[in-house]
Design goal:
Helices cover about 45% and strands about 15% of the residues. It has about 425 residues and is α/β, with parallel strands linked by helices. A 7-stranded mixed sheet has the order 9-8-7-6-10-11-12. A 5-stranded mixed sheet has the order 1-2-4-3-5. It is globular. The relative contact order is 0.13. The structure holds nicotinamide-adenine-dinucleotide.
Length: about 425
């Protein structure tokens, strides 16, 4: 079994031990937990396209629907050569937990195709997207399952999939996919939503933990990863007055204890170059990604890959808080080490839930045929994600558990309660 799936299932099993005390009917509770350990439906099949060279190309594809007790399934579609059934199942399970903790009315799902999209022409990518949409058409829809972009998929791919789906069902149904371009019913604010949501949570966390003793400029932040999530997180955190002292991409890290000019770094990256090629000034220096993880900062933000903080570097983390903007950046062993060392870990299912929350707003706008301003999107995001954090904070304090356990406690309880109400268990 792959490590991410093992970790996701262990999180559910561990949390069920704390949660069991809340349920008088132990048999029903156990049945609910056993159900959540497995997906409700696995769609897998081969999809084929005619390659540019005229030859048939076939790919393995998946859509895994984990649990829809709280609402339609929701989750991205990933095009990557390393996609596996286990990975898609793990991600679908985490989506159920993420939607439940964010308090948005969805269950979890995930899709994937085993393909290296960089080896396809644009035409082949369009045909692959269309073939995948045909495979999943019977199982998706605004009130069934709502896919979205994930690794190597984007608004263009959602547009091709939407077109294929709508042709098949013979009507418009924009609420079937989120992450669409604005022209086809996408939401304002979606591009920066994950980073923006993370900063709303960080601000609230610091208010709770630091209680105004510390000015914002004294809060130092190091961000690993400078893609969609890392860039917007760093940019918005800096705009709010926090001091971002380090960022990195896969080529290198840049550190300046006096604070970095995030916009200037972003401008440089936009020219298609890596951070390593940047000429440094004003006391900035290059550091490795491992050095970034060990910096003495207030908040360390892994925003790149899974398994960034492991048993081998968790003891060297020098931050007061690890803020998980990537999915699964801390292994279970590292998580225990950080907890024992008194380092708070704000878990991924809360920290990066801004993305799926604004996807939910996109769906709401599509269903209403009425579109919001960016200010409204951000106001609603702030309200939703701050409430999610405060719910977790309350449980953490009451039960004296970690933020991760508190987040899992809330999400699993919400799913179990929905299953019991429906009489599924
Ligand atoms: P992205 O591809 O836009 O950016 C990834 C960044 O990580 C790039 O800057 C890349 O150079 C850097 N990187 C890659 N390998 C690295 C390494 N070894 N060390 C340091 N940096 C490295 O991806 P993204 O959309 O920003 O997603 C980042 C993470 O956030 C992923 O775990 C993703 O699953 C998660 N996430 C993304 C969203 C979203 O809305 N995009 C939502 C929730 C979670």
């Amino acid at each position: 079994m792959n490590t991410m799936l093992t970790a996701a299932l262990n999180q559910i099993k561990d949390t069920s031990l704390i949660l069991a005390k809340d349920y008088e009917d132990g048999k029903t509770f156990k049945k609910a937990i056993d159900t959540i350990l497995k997906p409700q439906k696995v769609i897998d099949g081969k999809i084929s396209i005619k390659g540019k060279d005229g030859k048939k190309k076939t790919f393995q594809a998946f859509r895994i629907q984990h649990n829809d007790a709280r609402g339609p399934f929701k989750g991205g579609i990933r095009f990557h050569q390393n996609v596996s059934r286990d990975e898609v199942q793990a991600l679908s399970t985490l989506m159920s937990l993420k939607c439940a903790v964010a308090g948005i009315p969805y269950g979890g799902a995930k899709g994937g195709v085993i393909v290296d999209p960089t080896k396809l022409t644009k035409g082949e990518l369009k045909d692959l997207s269309s073939a995948y949409a045909k495979l999943i058409t019977p199982y998706i829809g605004p009130w069934k399952d709502v896919p979205a972009p994930d690794v190597n998929t984007d608004g263009q791919i959602m547009s091709w999939m939407l077109e294929t789906y709508e042709k098949k069902i013979g009507q418009q149904a924009p609420a079937t996919f989120t992450g669409k371009p604005l022209e086809l019913g996408g939401s304002l604010g979606r591009t920066e939503a994950t980073g923006q949501g993370g900063v709303f949570v960080l601000d609230e966390y610091l208010k709770q933990r630091v209680k105004g003793k510390r000015s914002k400029m004294k809060v130092t932040i190091a961000v690993q990863g400078f893609g969609n999530v890392g860039f917007y997180f760093a940019k918005i955190a800096k705009e709010l007055g926090f001091k971002v002292v380090a960022v990195s991409d896969s080529s290198t890290g840049i550190y300046n204890p006096k604070g970095l000019d995030i916009e200037a770094i972003a401008k440089f990256k936009e020219s298609g170059k890596s951070l390593k090629e940047q000429s440094l000034k004003g006391g900035s220096k290059f550091i490795t990604n491992s050095e970034l993880l060990e910096l003495p900062v207030t908040v360390l933000v892994p925003a790149a890959l899974e398994n960034a903080i492991t048993i081998s570097n968790a003891k060297k983390v020098n931050a007061k808080c690890v803020f998980e903007m990537a999915n699964g950046p801390t292994t279970s062993e590292a998580d225990q080490i950080l907890f024992k060392r008194g380092i708070d870990v704000i878990p991924d299912i809360l920290a990066n839930s801004g993305g799926v929350t604004v996807s939910y707003f996109e769906w709401v706008q599509n269903l209403n045929g009425y579109y919001w301003t960016k200010e409204r999107v951000n106001d609603e995001l702030k309200k939703t994600i701050t409430k999610a954090f405060l719910d977790i904070d309350t449980i953490k304090k009451a039960k004296k558990i970690s933020y991760r356990h508190a987040a899992n406690y809330i999400s699993i309880k919400r799913i179990v309660d929905a299953m019991i109400l429906r009489g599924r268990v």
